[in-house]
């Protein structure tokens, strides 16, 4: 068992996150335990609790790493796109690809819950906001003159729709013929939804 002074707090947190994400490549979060993670890291469970505050916050820190990964991949997708429409399509595809390649890590984002009395930390909320800001910026370019509130709602509408397709695709519950995939459904969604949104007048009573 490694001694506590073998790593600085920052190094230990990094090592723990690397270990958790590696484990999530092999098994769902529901089968993880603090004891298993501590054994893999080489420190006691108590040491990890001292570093993160609780097992729940440890998993939340892993979710922060996941959001950082998704954010970087969305940024890369946007940089390679030639238009806002293509950027949004690329972001949706990137999201589906991430979910397909890292299903347990991706699911933990939505399965993990803090106790009711605990609010989401600012550092995590900021990461969520950053991801949606990327989408909202493309929507604002796509529809000049629209309000920030309209872009915010539209970004979340698109995400919720794409997310639903991702969930069903990962669970193999799309029940579609062989020539219809999650990718083609996402493209169909955006090709039909975005033109309608661009041409529609904003509903200020929504």
TrEMBL record:
DNA-binding region(s), residue ranges: 33-52
Entries under Pfam families matching the protein: TetR_C_33, TetR_N
Keyword rRNA processing among record annotations: no
UniProt-listed InterPro entries: Homeodomain-like_sf, HTH_TetR, MT1864/Rv1816-like_C, Tet_transcr_reg_TetR-rel_C_sf
Keyword Nucleotide-binding: no
Residues annotated as domain HTH tetR-type: 10-70
Alphabetized PROSITE patterns for the sequence: HTH_TETR_2
Keywords attached to this entry: DNA-binding, Transcription, Transcription regulation
Name of the featured protein: TetR/AcrR family transcriptional regulator
Organism from which the protein derives: Thalassolituus hydrocarboniclasticus
């Amino acid at each position: 068992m490694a001694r506590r002074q073998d790593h600085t707090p920052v190094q230990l947190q990094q090592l723990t996150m690397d270990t958790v994400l590696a484990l999530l490549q092999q098994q769902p979060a529901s089968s993880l335990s603090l004891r298993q993670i501590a054994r893999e890291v080489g420190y006691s469970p108590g040491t990890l609790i001292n570093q993160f505050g609780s097992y729940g916050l440890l998993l939340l820190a892993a979710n922060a790493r996941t959001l950082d990964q998704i954010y970087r991949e969305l940024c890369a997708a946007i940089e390679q796109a030639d238009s806002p429409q293509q950027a949004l399509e690329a972001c949706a595809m990137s999201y589906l690809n991430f979910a397909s390649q890292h299903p347990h890590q991706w699911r933990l984002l939505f399965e993990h819950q803090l106790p009711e009395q605990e609010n989401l930390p600012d550092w995590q909320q900021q990461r969520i906001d950053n991801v949606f800001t990327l989408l909202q910026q493309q929507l604002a370019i796509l529809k000049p003159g629209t309000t920030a509130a309209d872009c915010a709602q539209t970004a979340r509408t698109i995400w919720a729709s794409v997310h639903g397709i991702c969930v069903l695709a990962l669970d193999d519950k799309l029940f579609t013929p062989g020539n219809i995939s999650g990718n083609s459904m996402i493209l169909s969604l955006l090709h039909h939804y975005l033109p309608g949104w661009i041409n529609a007048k904003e509903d200020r009573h929504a």
